[in-house]
Each structure stands twice: as C-alpha cells, then as structure tokens.
Write a structure and sequence with these properties.
About 35% of the residues lie in helices and about 20% in strands. It contains 15 helices and 19 strands. Helix 5 (about 130-140) runs parallel beside helix 6, helix 8 packs across helix 9 and helix 14 crosses helix 15.
C-alpha cells in the first residue's frame, strides 16, 4: 500500500469478520492517509517529502501554524502499518486522529511563554527490520524531528532505538518486551545498570508473560489432571532468545518442565519434526513467540499432525482480531495476553476519556473489536509531558533527560519513569492479563479476559476453557 493508494472509508461490520483482511482493515483505518489537525486536512504523500523516497511517510500539523510564537515541534512515529506486523499498527492512524483532536496537539504545546505548533510524521516500516533503521536515520538526519516514537515488536523498535541512541535523538518506545529492548541497547537484564541516555519504553517483559500464563496452566491442570510439560517453540530472534532464557526457570519454580524446540529461523515453512518431538514428549501445554505468519503455519500443521495440547498460551500472535479471524475455528480457545483492555480504569491525561470510551469510539469508527494498541495513545502523552517540561523543545539532550523524568497517568496506565520498582532504567511495566479467543455473541470470535492475576484492575469477561479437552 502506498500513500497514493491509501484511502479511508467504511469497513464492513465485524459480523463479517472472517472476510476481513489485514489490508482491508488498514485501508479502513486510513493507513498512510493524512489526519485532521487544527488547521484542516493536511496531506503529504511520500513523493513530496524531502528525502522520503518510498518510505510512505505522512504529515499532519496543529497548533495554529505560523501564528504560534515558538515555531514548530516535529514528532516522528515509526511503526508497521503494512506487512506481516500490520496487526500491531492497525489502530495507529485512528490514534493519531484522536490525538489531533486533543487541546495540546490541536492548539499547540505551551513551553514557557511560547506556543509551538506540532507536526506529526508517520513512517511505515512495512514490517521490515532494515527499513525501520533507515526510516530512523531519515527522520533524524533528513526530516529533523525533535522527538521520535517507535512501536510494535523488536523487528521495528530495536533498530530505531539503536539509531536514536547513536544519533542523540529522544525516543519513546512501546510494545516490545523490555528484555529485548534493553539487551539491544547493550544492557544486561540480570544486572540492569545501563541507563540509556535518549531512549525510554513502556510495555511488559518476557517474565510477565510466563507469569500470566502459569495461573492459566494451573487451572487447566487442576481441571483435567494434565502433565506439567510445556512444549515451547522459540525462534532464533530477539524475542525468541529472550524468552528461551526467561521462561524455563520461572516455569520450573512453578512445577513445570519445558520441552524446548531448537531455535528455528523466522519464516520457516515446515515444523513437522518439531511437532513430532512435542507429541512424543507428552506435552499438555504449548507456548511460543513467533512472527504472526509463522504461527499460522505452525498451528495448522500441529492440528494436521494431531498435536492437541490441553492449553495453548501464545505470545506475540493472536493479539488482534484480524489474526484470529484468519485462523477461523482453529483459533478457538487458544489463549494469549493483552496489556490493555476496555475495562481498565485508566483515562486520557488530555481529555479524561476512559478506556471504555476509547474502545466505543474505535468501534463507532467502523473498525471492529478494539485493538490493544489503542494504548499507543500514551506515546503522545509522554511526548507532551517531556516536551513541555524543558526550556527549549529543540534541545534534544534536555528532552531526553525529561522523558526519563515523566510521571503521569495515561491511557495505558501509570507512567512513572522515576520509579525504583522498574526492572531497568528507562522502563515502565504495563502488566498483561490472560485472554482467550472464544466463540462470541456480538462478534464471531471474541477475546475474553480469563485471568487478571497480574492486573486485577481488569474485569474478567469469560471462563477459561481447555484449547483441546
């Protein structure tokens, strides 16, 4: 999808969910299309942006334009809007449209006695690791951003974080396990003494995922008298390597044994030998952290070969409705995690809107079931807090220092980068809940919150069921 071909418009009801494609959802969300800012509809196609080339960047401005006494602040957001990770970016353009309606982004940031208009530039990585790094260089060197945002998996965020730290540009990250993010920057999660100078993040860690899965395993074990063997398929990538190190010892302490596959290459097409080993090992539980297309292949082959774990608890996949719809009935009663749900009590620091109101607005826009990455809204809340806490928002060192001092309540939850409880400098944890894809009433498939052990503020909305009884 290019800027020139992207378009907004109505999306079909989720009653037709199985017919939705990821491309259709993105088109409905207005992927790579301009959003409404304070001065009207401002569109910038990739061909018209200096140095953009094929980067599919878009710009939107606010804050009164030339009348702003302080000039302009430029914020860049690097995220996957197309490609294999597009499910993570599906709500992002809707998020931008909501942000542009808030007073600070519509009327400008007040810094001291000056008011600065705000320009947001969106960069689509097309789910490419290489492209993510290239876009970070473009945003910093060619487009002159004052601050960067990056979201959604190590495949997007790590290259941007390395570039921002090297080139001295403040960056706020989301939707990446903190261990992967920290190791990439040169830190050691076991001895987290390194403090990144320009980069912060909010999300969860690999340890929080296994801690969210264990209560679900325990309940199924008690219900069915299962083995306590967990088949684990971890790829040879940033997430897979982090999970391979973190999951087994935590699970062992809870009485579970891991049957680990050999690290496999992302994009592998045949998992037969792995599945055969899992079957012969007597595993009643299954977990993994693959790229979404890889899980679809792996899970279909598991069903074909008769590997029927009593409960599948997967990470990084089935987080969003389109990925679940794509597997149809095969996804029923597969569990995963989520870091944001409509029932959470968090509110926007700009408007006071609740998570439920945001979710309702998302559905009213014709985008179907709410996507957990509506929580990306908080990237802009942190950006505002940092940029308005300095004397000069163009002073990158000062802004970088300010993002490490942000302490606000946002739509994604409490954001206290000064907390001594953080697992590493520059990290805020947003704990997950356990969800399970079940047959729904409003939608054909619905993500039910079935465990809130780590985030009791979230309302339980369904009973945990065995994936295969």
């Amino acid at each position: 999808m290019t800027d020139q071909s992207a378009q907004s418009g109505g999306i079909r009801s989720d009653s037709q969910a199985t017919d939705l494609s990821r491309r259709g959802l993105l088109r409905a969300a207005g992927a790579s299309a301009a959003v409404v800012g304070g001065g009207g509809l401002l569109a910038a196609c990739s061909s018209s942006i200096k140095g953009a080339g094929p980067s599919n960047t878009t710009s939107s401005s606010s804050g009164g334009g030339a009348s702003a006494s302080g000039g302009s602040i430029k914020i860049g957001w690097i995220h996957p809007l197309t490609g294999g990770l597009a499910g993570f970016g599906a709500p992002d353009n809707w998020v931008i449209s909501k942000i542009q309606q808030t007073s600070p982004y519509k009327n400008g940031f007040k810094v001291g006695s000056k008011t600065y208009s705000v320009t947001i530039k969106s960069y689509d990585t097309q789910s490419s690791v290489t492209r993510a790094g290239q876009l970070a260089q473009q945003a910093i060197n060619a487009d002159g951003v004052d601050l960067l945002l990056a979201s959604s998996t190590p495949e997007t965020v790590n290259a941007v974080a390395s570039t921002a730290e090297t080139l001295g540009t403040p960056l706020i990250c989301a939707n990446i396990p903190w261990e992967s993010w920290y190791i990439n920057l040169g830190g050691n999660p076991q001895k987290p003494t390194l403090k990144p100078k320009y980069v912060v993040m909010y999300f969860l860690g690999a340890e929080h995922l296994v801690q969210a899965f264990i209560p679900m395993w325990n309940r199924i074990h008690s219900q069915l008298g299962t083995s306590k063997v967990v088949a684990a398929a971890f790829p040879n990538d940033s997430d897979g390597n982090a999970f391979r190190a973190v999951f087994p010892p935590i699970a062992k302490a809870a009485g579970y044994t891991f049957d680990l596959s050999s690290p496999y290459t992302d994009g592998t097409g045949n998992y037969s030998s792995m599945i055969s080993a899992f079957k012969s090992g007597g595993a009643d539980f299954f977990t993994n952290v693959p790229l979404p297309p890889d899980f679809a292949t792996m899970w279909k082959q598991s069903v074909q070969q008769g590997f029927r774990p009593k409960l599948a608890t997967v990470a990084k996949v089935l987080l969003f409705p389109p990925d679940a719809y794509a597997l149809g009935s095969l996804v029923e009663n597969v569990a995963t995690d989520t870091w944001w749900t409509a029932s959470l009590p968090w509110t926007s620091s700009f408007t006071g809107e609740t998570c439920q109101q945001m979710a309702n607005d998302y559905e009213a826009a014709g985008l179907g079931q709410p996507n957990a990455n509506i929580s990306n809204y908080t990237l802009f809340e942190i950006a505002h807090a940092a940029l308005t806490a300095v004397d000069d928002p163009h002073d990158k060192a000062a802004v970088a220092d300010a993002i490490h001092k942000v302490n606000i309540q946002g739509l994604a939850g409490p954001m206290d980068f000064t907390s001594s409880k953080a697992p590493a400098p520059g990290v805020v944890i947003t704990p997950p809940v356990g969800i399970q894809w079940q047959r729904g009433t409003k939608y054909q498939l619905e993500a039910k919150v079935v465990d809130n052990t780590l985030l009791p503020q979230a309302k339980i909305t369904g009973d945990l069921k065995p994936t295969n009884a």
